[in-house]
Amino acid sequence: MTLGVLALLVIGLFLSSLLVGPAGIPPGAALAALVGAGDGPLPIVMQEIRLPRALLGLGVGASLGLAGAAMQGYLRNPLAEPGLIGVSAAAALGAVLAIQTGLAAAFALGLPLAALAGAAGAVALLFLLAGREGGTLTLILAGIAVSAFAGALTSLVLNLSPNPYAAAEIVFWLLGSLADRSMTHVWVAAPLMVAGWALIAFTARGLDALTLGEDAAETLGVDLRRLRLLLVTGTAAAVGAATAVAGAIGFVGLVVPHLLRRLVGASPARLLPASALGGAAMILAADIAVRVILPERDLKLGVVTALVGAPLFLHLIWSLRRTGP
Amino acid sequence: MWGCVRGFRTIALALGLFAAPTLHAEPARVVSMNVCTDQLAMLIAAPGQLVSVSHLARDLGLSAMAEAAEGYPVNHGRAEEIYLLEPDLVLASTFSNRATVAMLRRVGIEVAEFPPATALADIPDRLRKMGEVLDRGGAATDRVSAFEAALDANRSAGRGRAALYGPGGYYRGGETLAGDIVAAAGFGTISDSVGRDYGGFLPLELLVMAEPDLIVTPGAPETPSRSHAVLDHPALAGRGTARALTNRDWVCGTPAVLDAIDRLAAAVE
Questions:
Q1: Structural domain containing residue B28
Q2: Helix A183-201 and helix A224-246, axial crossing angle in degrees, nearest 10
Q3: What sign for the dihedral angle of Cα B185, B188, B191, B197?
Q4: Predicted ipTM?
Q5: A50, B205: Cβ pair inside 8 Å?
Q6: How far is CA A22 from CA B96, B202, B231, in A?
Q7: How many separate domains does chain B show?
Q8: CA angle, B34 as apex, B28 and B37 as ends, to 5°?
Q9: Is A191 near chain B, with CB under 8 Å?
Q10: CATH no. for residue B99?
């Protein structure tokens, strides 16, 4: 029921995303041009500019929502979120290194694979530090350290680049944007994102068992090492590919599972698909918002997600304080 | 300080204290700290008069006279190193670091500031001003008449509408030097549909909808960057796109813009 409503919401936002843009094309003409009718520049705008933007919004949002829900399930910690604890920042570092060294230009999957490597390093490190007995505090401290370190290295690499435009790109990598992406980006990111979703989907039963505690999960026949491996690679693939094409977008993986837990319950198996849809809806809505607020400027996505996410984050901390750490 | 000396000399001249040959106030040691004043000065200064140019003057991507600049010692636009060069006159842009310019003036060094050229019509003006401050009016007048004659000969018209599009989706409109170069090569702008006479960020969607006859872009950079990727966007493929066209000849208001006009005209013929 909830999944059906969420799916309808995503479809509605996907269509709205196709219809919103600085050029102000009438909806009828826009949809006709999308399937190839019409002449002049309209079909190109719809098929080569707006369609990839909407598709990437869908994929990036689903990846971030899913990764957030899975990490929160595994760490049994409501603050685990790819953007907040440095996974996105590390993926951005991988992507920046791939672009600056020419790896991204050398072969098509170079960019998302480098971002995957960065994300995998960060997820593995965080699971090692906060996985078994670490509390909320350990996770957040480790996350801040990874986040700051990866962000500093990204800025350093871009400042060292002799290309005069590189330093201005720091903003994109810190805040994310879907402006003027192409179908090439969709083809490059989609395979890894889908693979990441599949890997995370396999963890659903294990995560459900894990809500009873690690010992109980093991007696139920859950292989915790296999579960962790699936989660590290799945999260890294989904977040890495998403970050490689859209930059580091924060708060989606935090807000979406938090909101949906009230609707579908705390069971990770049910939260995972709902969070994927919720994440897609949030990014599509945020991307529509940046185009409605400042249609002719490239307002970054992370600005909108943080405006929604940061107050919720404070609310979470507030309720954690009341219930004790 | 130099200003005071000059003022003193003017008074002295009025009083007939100096003999004619020593009268002129030609600055003997001139340092330039901006890539555009570097080039104007190299064109007009007397041999030995210009003692240092900025390090950007040797940048092949920015300076149309990078080869000539190899013959000059370079500075990095910092007050300390410029002061130690003991200049009589420093040439700067009005966009040069304000703190550096203020510091130089505070220690008594004359600084001549040149606003960047935003139109082809500014170029004769800047050449004359350089002639004035270097006391090389004759050399400047020669450059100006050669430039104006060549510009009149190079102008064409009626080639359709062109758009200047660069890394990060940055568009330059008609009220810029680059826009004026495009106009001199015979193209109109797309301002009727996108506005932005002075340029600014232009979403790709608006560029495509404006249907320019020609999109003029810079070439691929030596080091890759994400900002340049938008120039390879499939939505621009198959449209009239003149790639790798904006280069160092488009940066400063110097006679090098004549080569830019020629190359643009040649690219569409």
A1: 2-151
A2: 160
A3: positive
A4: 0.80
A5: yes
A6: 35, 10, 19
A7: 2
A8: 60
A9: no
A10: 3.40.50.1980
Give A-chain residues touching B222 at CB under 8 angstroms.
Answer: 162-163
CB A33 within 8 A of CB A42: yes
Query: At B112, phi and psi to the nearest 5?
Result: -100, 125
Where do the domains of chain A lie, and which CATH numbers do they carry? 2-323 (1.10.3470.10)
Residue B203: Cβ-neighbour burial (10 angstroms; 0-12, 13-18, 19+): buried
Residue in chain A lying closest to B196 (CA): A296
Angle at A223 between CA A203 and CA A242, to 5 degrees: 30
* C-beta atoms of B204 and A168 within 8 A: no
Determine, yes or no, domain membership for B86. Answer: yes
Q: Environment class of residue A106 by beta-carbon count within 10 Å: exposed (0-12), middle (13-18) or buried (19+)?
A: exposed
CB-based contact (8 Å) between A99 and chain B? yes
The partner residues of B112 in beta bridges, in order of sequence, read B91
The strand order across the sheet containing B74-75 reads: B74-75, B50-54, B30-32, B89-93, B110-114
* Helix, strand or coil, per DSSP, at residue B121: coil
Query: What's the gap between Cα A29 and its chain centre?
Result: 32
Placement of tokens 């990111």 in the chain: A189
Contact (CB<8Å) A161/B225: yes
- One domain, residues B119 and B181: no
- Tokens encoding A69: 């829900």
Is B233 close to A168, i.e. CB distance below 8 A? no
Q: Which of residues 199-258 of B touch A (CB under 8 A)?
A: 201-206, 208-209, 211, 221-228, 230, 233-235
Task: Tell me: do B8 and B96 sit in the same domain.
Answer: yes
Per-residue pLDDT of chain A (325 residues; tens, 9 = 90+): 789 999 999 999 999 999 998 888 889 888 888 888 777 888 889 999 999 999 999 999 999 999 999 999 888 888 888 888 889 999 999 999 998 888 888 887 888 899 999 999 998 888 888 765 556 678 778 888 999 999 999 999 998 888 878 888 888 888 999 988 899 999 999 999 999 999 999 999 999 998 888 888 889 988 888 988 898 899 999 999 999 999 999 899 988 998 898 889 889 999 999 999 999 999 999 999 999 988 777 889 999 998 988 888 788 778 777 765 4
Overall pTM surpassing 0.95 (yes/no): no
